[in-house]
Protein backbone atom coordinates (compact mmCIF):
# COMPACT_ATOMS: atom_id res chain seq x y z
CA UNK A 1 0.00 0.00 0.00
CA UNK A 2 1.27 3.39 -0.85
CA UNK A 3 2.31 5.35 2.25
CA UNK A 4 0.26 8.37 1.24
CA UNK A 5 -2.83 6.22 0.73
CA UNK A 6 -2.31 4.54 4.08
CA UNK A 7 -1.94 7.91 5.80
CA UNK A 8 -5.09 9.22 4.18
CA UNK A 9 -7.04 6.11 5.11
CA UNK A 10 -5.75 6.26 8.66
CA UNK A 11 -6.70 9.88 9.12
CA UNK A 12 -10.10 9.31 7.51
CA UNK A 13 -10.75 6.42 9.90
CA UNK A 14 -9.55 8.49 12.83
CA UNK A 15 -11.81 11.37 11.82
CA UNK A 16 -14.72 8.99 11.49
CA UNK A 17 -14.06 7.64 14.99
CA UNK A 18 -13.76 11.13 16.40
CA UNK A 19 -17.02 12.09 14.72
CA UNK A 20 -18.70 8.93 16.00
CA UNK A 21 -17.42 9.52 19.53
CA UNK A 22 -18.57 13.13 19.31
CA UNK A 23 -22.02 12.01 18.16
CA UNK A 24 -22.20 9.49 20.99
CA UNK A 25 -21.10 12.14 23.50
CA UNK A 26 -23.72 14.53 22.12
CA UNK A 27 -26.42 11.89 22.47
CA UNK A 28 -25.33 11.06 26.01
CA UNK A 29 -25.08 14.74 26.85
CA UNK A 30 -28.51 15.54 25.46
CA UNK A 31 -29.92 12.54 27.33
CA UNK A 32 -28.35 13.77 30.56
CA UNK A 33 -29.70 17.28 29.99
CA UNK A 34 -33.15 15.87 29.22
CA UNK A 35 -33.03 13.70 32.34
CA UNK A 36 -31.89 16.69 34.38
CA UNK A 37 -34.72 18.81 32.96
CA UNK A 38 -37.13 15.98 33.70
CA UNK A 39 -35.89 15.75 37.30
CA UNK A 40 -36.19 19.51 37.70
CA UNK A 41 -39.71 19.43 36.24
CA UNK A 42 -40.66 16.63 38.64
CA UNK A 43 -39.26 18.61 41.55
CA UNK A 44 -41.27 21.66 40.44
CA UNK A 45 -44.39 19.51 40.12
CA UNK A 46 -43.77 17.99 43.57
CA UNK A 47 -43.33 21.45 45.10
CA UNK A 48 -46.49 22.70 43.37
CA UNK A 49 -48.43 19.65 44.56
CA UNK A 50 -47.16 20.10 48.13
CA UNK A 51 -48.10 23.80 48.03
CA UNK A 52 -51.58 22.92 46.72
CA UNK A 53 -52.05 20.39 49.52
CA UNK A 54 -50.91 22.94 52.13
CA UNK A 55 -53.27 25.54 50.67
CA UNK A 56 -56.14 23.06 50.76
CA UNK A 57 -55.35 22.17 54.38
CA UNK A 58 -55.25 25.87 55.35
CA UNK A 59 -58.54 26.58 53.59
CA UNK A 60 -60.21 23.57 55.23
CA UNK A 61 -58.98 24.69 58.65
CA UNK A 62 -60.21 28.25 58.00
CA UNK A 63 -63.63 26.90 57.00
CA UNK A 64 -63.90 24.68 60.08
CA UNK A 65 -62.75 27.52 62.33
CA UNK A 66 -65.30 29.93 60.82
CA UNK A 67 -68.09 27.39 61.31
CA UNK A 68 -67.08 26.78 64.93
CA UNK A 69 -66.89 30.52 65.59
CA UNK A 70 -70.45 30.90 64.30
CA UNK A 71 -71.60 28.04 66.53
CA UNK A 72 -69.86 29.65 69.52
CA UNK A 73 -71.59 32.93 68.71
CA UNK A 74 -74.98 31.20 68.61
CA UNK A 75 -74.28 29.39 71.89
CA UNK A 76 -73.20 32.69 73.47
CA UNK A 77 -76.45 34.38 72.40
CA UNK A 78 -78.46 31.52 73.92
CA UNK A 79 -76.46 31.66 77.16
CA UNK A 80 -76.93 35.44 77.34
CA UNK A 81 -80.69 35.03 76.88
CA UNK A 82 -80.68 32.43 79.65
CA UNK A 83 -78.88 34.85 81.98
CA UNK A 84 -81.16 37.71 80.95
CA UNK A 85 -84.25 35.63 81.54
CA UNK A 86 -83.02 34.52 84.98
CA UNK A 87 -82.35 38.17 85.83
CA UNK A 88 -85.80 39.24 84.62
CA UNK A 89 -87.39 36.40 86.60
CA UNK A 90 -85.52 37.53 89.70
CA UNK A 91 -86.76 41.06 89.15
CA UNK A 92 -90.27 39.77 88.55
CA UNK A 93 -90.72 41.36 85.19
CA UNK A 94 -89.77 40.83 81.54
CA UNK A 95 -88.15 43.36 79.26
CA UNK A 96 -87.74 43.49 75.53
CA UNK A 97 -84.91 41.44 74.03
CA UNK A 98 -82.02 43.87 73.88
CA UNK A 99 -79.94 41.54 71.68
CA UNK A 100 -82.56 40.96 68.96
CA UNK A 101 -80.47 42.60 66.23
CA UNK A 102 -77.47 40.48 67.15
CA UNK A 103 -79.65 37.37 67.15
CA UNK A 104 -81.00 38.12 63.70
CA UNK A 105 -77.54 38.81 62.28
CA UNK A 106 -76.14 35.61 63.75
CA UNK A 107 -79.09 33.59 62.51
CA UNK A 108 -78.57 34.98 58.98
CA UNK A 109 -74.87 34.09 59.07
CA UNK A 110 -75.64 30.57 60.30
CA UNK A 111 -78.22 29.92 57.59
CA UNK A 112 -76.02 31.50 54.87
CA UNK A 113 -72.95 29.46 55.78
CA UNK A 114 -72.10 26.92 53.02
CA UNK A 115 -72.59 23.85 55.19
CA UNK A 116 -71.39 21.48 52.44
CA UNK A 117 -67.92 23.04 52.74
CA UNK A 118 -67.51 21.15 56.02
CA UNK A 119 -67.43 17.92 53.93
CA UNK A 120 -67.83 15.62 56.96
CA UNK A 121 -71.42 14.43 57.42
CA UNK A 122 -71.16 14.45 61.23
CA UNK A 123 -69.94 18.07 61.22
CA UNK A 124 -72.72 19.15 58.86
CA UNK A 125 -75.38 17.51 61.04
CA UNK A 126 -74.03 19.14 64.20
CA UNK A 127 -73.77 22.58 62.56
CA UNK A 128 -77.35 22.38 61.31
CA UNK A 129 -78.63 22.30 64.90
CA UNK A 130 -77.45 25.80 65.82
CA UNK A 131 -79.83 27.96 63.73
CA UNK A 132 -82.79 26.02 65.18
CA UNK A 133 -81.46 26.32 68.74
CA UNK A 134 -80.98 30.07 68.34
CA UNK A 135 -84.48 30.49 66.91
CA UNK A 136 -85.92 28.44 69.79
CA UNK A 137 -84.18 30.64 72.38
CA UNK A 138 -85.55 33.81 70.78
CA UNK A 139 -89.02 32.24 70.60
CA UNK A 140 -88.99 31.26 74.29
CA UNK A 141 -88.13 34.80 75.30
CA UNK A 142 -90.57 36.47 72.88
CA UNK A 143 -93.44 34.16 73.89
CA UNK A 144 -92.79 34.86 77.57
CA UNK A 145 -92.74 38.57 76.91
CA UNK A 146 -96.13 38.44 75.18
CA UNK A 147 -97.65 36.06 77.75
CA UNK A 148 -96.51 38.04 80.80
CA UNK A 149 -97.84 41.30 79.46
CA UNK A 150 -101.25 39.69 78.94
CA UNK A 151 -101.39 37.68 82.20
CA UNK A 152 -102.58 38.70 85.67
CA UNK A 153 -99.81 39.50 88.16
CA UNK A 154 -100.49 36.33 90.16
CA UNK A 155 -99.82 34.06 87.18
CA UNK A 156 -96.54 35.61 86.09
CA UNK A 157 -94.26 33.78 88.51
CA UNK A 158 -95.15 30.37 87.12
CA UNK A 159 -94.62 31.65 83.57
CA UNK A 160 -91.16 32.92 84.46
CA UNK A 161 -90.21 29.65 86.12
CA UNK A 162 -91.38 27.52 83.20
CA UNK A 163 -89.59 29.66 80.62
CA UNK A 164 -86.43 29.88 82.72
CA UNK A 165 -86.29 26.08 83.03
CA UNK A 166 -86.86 25.68 79.28
CA UNK A 167 -84.09 28.17 78.49
CA UNK A 168 -81.73 26.48 80.97
CA UNK A 169 -82.20 23.12 79.27
CA UNK A 170 -81.66 24.69 75.85
CA UNK A 171 -78.51 26.47 77.06
CA UNK A 172 -77.07 23.26 78.53
CA UNK A 173 -77.93 21.22 75.44
CA UNK A 174 -76.42 23.84 73.13
CA UNK A 175 -73.14 23.70 75.01
CA UNK A 176 -73.13 19.92 74.62
CA UNK A 177 -73.82 20.30 70.92
CA UNK A 178 -70.99 22.84 70.69
CA UNK A 179 -68.55 20.33 72.20
CA UNK A 180 -69.83 17.61 69.83
CA UNK A 181 -69.44 19.95 66.85
CA UNK A 182 -65.85 20.83 67.80
CA UNK A 183 -65.08 17.11 68.12
CA UNK A 184 -66.59 16.42 64.69
CA UNK A 185 -64.40 19.19 63.27
CA UNK A 186 -61.29 17.87 64.99
CA UNK A 187 -60.74 21.20 66.79
CA UNK A 188 -59.90 21.65 70.46
CA UNK A 189 -62.73 23.82 71.74
CA UNK A 190 -60.81 24.80 74.87
CA UNK A 191 -58.22 26.52 72.70
CA UNK A 192 -60.88 28.70 71.06
CA UNK A 193 -63.19 29.74 73.88
CA UNK A 194 -63.35 30.01 77.63
CA UNK A 195 -67.10 29.57 77.63
CA UNK A 196 -68.19 27.67 80.73
CA UNK A 197 -70.84 25.01 80.46
CA UNK A 198 -73.35 26.57 82.82
CA UNK A 199 -75.31 24.11 84.88
CA UNK A 200 -79.00 24.86 85.33
Structure, described:
The chain has one domain (3-191). The radius of gyration is 37 Å and the shape is rod-shaped. It is mostly helical and 200 residues long. 82% of the residues lie in helices and 0% in strands. Residues 2-6 and 194-200 have low confidence and may be disordered. It contains 4 helices and no strands. It starts with a helix and ends in a 15-residue tail after the last helix.
Keywords:
200 residues, mainly alpha, 4 helices, rod-shaped, disordered N terminus, disordered C terminus
Average residue-wise pLDDT? 74
The shape is rod-shaped
What is the domain total for the residues?
Answer: 1
The proportion of strand residues reads under 5%
Category by helix and strand content: mainly alpha
Q: What kind of sheet is the major sheet? A: none
Low-confidence stretches: 2-6, 194-200
Order of helical and strand elements: HHHH
Through-space gap between termini: 119 Å
Amino acid sequence: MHPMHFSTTFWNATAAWVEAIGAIAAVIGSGWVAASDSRAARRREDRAAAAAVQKEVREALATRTAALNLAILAATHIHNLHVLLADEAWRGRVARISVSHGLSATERMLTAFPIQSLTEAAAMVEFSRFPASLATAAEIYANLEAAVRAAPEADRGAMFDASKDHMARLDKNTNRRLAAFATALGIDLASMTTMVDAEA
